[in-house]
Write a structure and sequence with these properties.
Distance between the termini: 118 Å
Shape: elongated
Structural class: alpha+beta
Keywords: Membrane, Transmembrane, Transmembrane helix
Number of helices: 12
Number of strands: 11
Strand order of the largest sheet: 1-2-5
Helix content: 55-70%
Largest sheet: 3 strands, antiparallel
Number of domains: 3
Radius of gyration: 39 Å
Length: 391
């Protein structure tokens, strides 16, 4: 046993009733029998508790060295856990995290709520997660450009890459998580032959994901998104080996997608103002048409005007249909270029981005077809009037 005093305190803690714990002070009612006297004397000797206790209704003071091992004593007692010299006592995991947010304790420790000694062979899941997070913090600290320390505040890691990132190491019990790849990531960032490039790529991913997050919430967000950050880092490294960046490629694809969306919407927006004239043209023809049939020539001229008007709109519509067809061809060319890229990276995500444009193109094409039908209804209706009302 490497920490006998800590174990003595834990045995005494197990015998306490009406337990109260507050900021390192452990209080309660203790029944002292022969099995606990040695532990209690030890605690008094290292100032973890008082060297005398109050016993009985007469409040008799008895020093720990004068206990009669044949008797059982009951007393209210307080242990000052932070006075332990060979270990650390914590009531719960939150207290451990608060006391040691950046690195594991340098001494043996015990967590009462888990009944766990740091030397136990079986480690609770939450402690394994805490150990993983501590490893991550050590790694992030080593690749940071600067560590800002301020009294009363958690440390802040600062990174400079394409832009600047402040990563304050604020987290709690609920943010702890398993990190399966933490040892592998350390090997990649410190032992790989291209560790310098890998660090740069990893830091760039951190900044990309967290640049718009408040400093105080950045580390908790990183823990929540760490798997995604790690996967993108690996993809970016593959792309680096092939001389291009995952983020740059993603930005390029996103930009292309946005540009094409604008062009697709413009195919309808550009002609809307012209098509608005169609109802007006129909109303004009309807008001001018001679339904008596007496002015046949006038009606013929109105029909001719309606046909010419529709032909002009049809020309514009054909242009817009051509624009959509051209956009489709361009998108297919870009998809072909991506498919033919000599890369080990799965580019399905990027191909899918372009694929999302196809339904939008079909939707806009349907709008143009509707405009065409409405446009040709004008001369169609005029011709029908002519057939019905001509003498």
């Amino acid at each position: 046993m490497n920490s006998p005093h800590l174990h003595s305190l834990v045995r005494l803690r197990a015998a306490l009733s009406d337990v109260i714990y507050d900021s390192g002070e452990l209080s309660g009612i203790l029944k002292i029998d022969a099995t606990l006297i040695t532990d209690l004397i030890t605690m008094a000797a290292i100032s973890v508790t008082e060297d005398s206790v109050t016993i009985g209704e007469n409040s008799e003071q008895i020093t720990t060295l004068k206990f009669d091992r044949a008797q059982v004593y009951e007393t209210a007692i307080t242990f000052y856990t932070r006075s332990l010299d060979d270990g650390l006592y914590y009531d719960n995991p939150e207290e451990l995290i608060t006391a040691h947010p950046y690195r594991l304790p340098g001494k043996a420790y015990y967590i009462a709520s888990l009944d766990y000694f740091s030397e136990d062979a079986v480690v609770p899941e939450i402690i394994m997660h805490y150990q993983n997070v501590i490893k991550l913090i050590a790694l992030l600290s080593e690749v940071a450009d600067y560590i800002k320390e301020a009294p009363g505040e958690r440390d802040t890691l600062i990174y400079f890459e394409k832009s600047k990132l402040h990563l304050q190491l604020i987290y709690g019990k609920d943010d702890l998580r398993k990190i399966d790849f933490i040892d592998k990531l350390r090997e990649q960032l410190f032992d790989a032959h291209d560790f310098t490039e890998r660090r740069s790529i990893f830091r760039a991913e951190l900044i990309s994901y967290l640049k718009d997050t408040p400093t105080s919430g950045a580390f908790a967000k990183l823990l929540a998104m760490l798997n995604e950050v790690y996967e993108h880092y690996k993809k970016s490294h593959l792309l680096y080996l092939e001389k291009f960046s995952y983020q740059d490629l993603k930005s390029e694809v996103d930009k292309d997608q946005l540009d094409y969306m604008k062009k697709i919407y413009a195919s309808v927006n550009d002609i809307q103002s012209k098509v608005i004239a169609v109802p007006a043209a129909f109303i004009l023809i309807y008001t001018q048409f001679d339904f008596t049939g007496a002015q046949f020539l006038k009606n013929i001229l109105l029909l001719t005007g309606a046909v010419l008007f529709s032909v002009l709109i049809e020309v514009l519509l054909r242009n817009q249909f051509g624009v959509l067809a051209y956009i489709e061809e361009e998108i297919e060319q870009l998809k072909t270029i991506l498919k033919n890229k000599d890369t080990q990276l799965d580019l399905t995500e990027f191909l899918g981005s372009y694929g999302k444009l196809a339904p939008l193109i079909n939707k806009q094409r349907n709008y143009l077809i509707l405009f065409r039908i409405v446009t040709w209804l004008v001369p169609g209706a005029t011709f029908l009037f002519l057939m019905i009302y001509s003498k």
